[in-house]
Amino acid sequence: MNRTLNSIAISALSDLPAAAEALLQFAGSQKIFLFYGNMGTGKTTFIKTLCEQLGVMEAVTSPTFSIVNEYAGRDAQVYHFDFYRLKNQEEALDMGYEEYFYSGNYCLIEWPEKIPDLLPQHYIKVSIAVSNEQTREFSFESI
């Protein structure tokens, strides 16, 4: 059963921790998050804040070239994926995406549009849209 949380609007970076906490509350025990939004909407910036909420102590960086970065969280490993540079889904198969997605650890996935046939059956869809230069709208949906 899909359920959606109404949009959360933030207008300052200082609002990101509250948005990340709202996402984790909404997700409950779900640990797979797919992030949708145009280039420059703040997906990676939000993921950095989310990682802080999950207890990641090291610097979180975009895995644009490595495809996946791994971090130690408070209660579980955190895998941060950026599939933007994939040429096809075969590349995700070759990297062993299943081991990550079905590990029981957190998976934070940017550009899931690049792997439509490989997405897990259940996940949290996080959509980020730009309202204006300072404001972002976040919506969460449980799939």
Coarse shape: globular
Q: Got a strand count?
A: 7
Based on secondary structure, the structural category is alpha/beta
Number of helices: 4
What is Rg?
14 Å
Distance between the termini: 7 Å
- What composes the largest sheet? 7 strands, mixed
User: Uncertain segments of ≥5 residues (pLDDT<50)?
Assistant: none
Q: Secondary-structure element sequence? A: EHEHEEHHEEE
User: Could you give the order of strands across the largest sheet?
Assistant: 1-7-6-2-5-4-3
Helix content: 10-25%
Average pLDDT works out at: 91
Percentage beta strand: 25-35%
Describe the structure.
Helix content is 24%, strand content 30%. It has 4 helices and 7 strands, in the order βαβαββααβββ. The protein is globular and about 40 Å long. It has 143 residues and is α/β, with parallel strands linked by helices. The model has no long low-confidence stretch (mean pLDDT 91). It has a 7-stranded mixed beta sheet with strand order 1-7-6-2-5-4-3, covered by helices on one side. Helix 1 crosses helix 2.
List keywords for this structure.
alpha/beta; 143 residues; single chain
Secondary structure blueprint with pairings:
Blueprint (H helix, E strand, L loop, with lengths): L2 E8 L5 H12 L4 E5 L6 H11 L14 E5 L4 E6 L6 H6 L2 H5 L4 E5 L13 E7 L5 E7 L1
Parallel strand pairs: 2-5, 2-6, 4-5
Antiparallel strand pairs: 1-7, 3-4, 6-7
Helix pairs in contact: 1-2
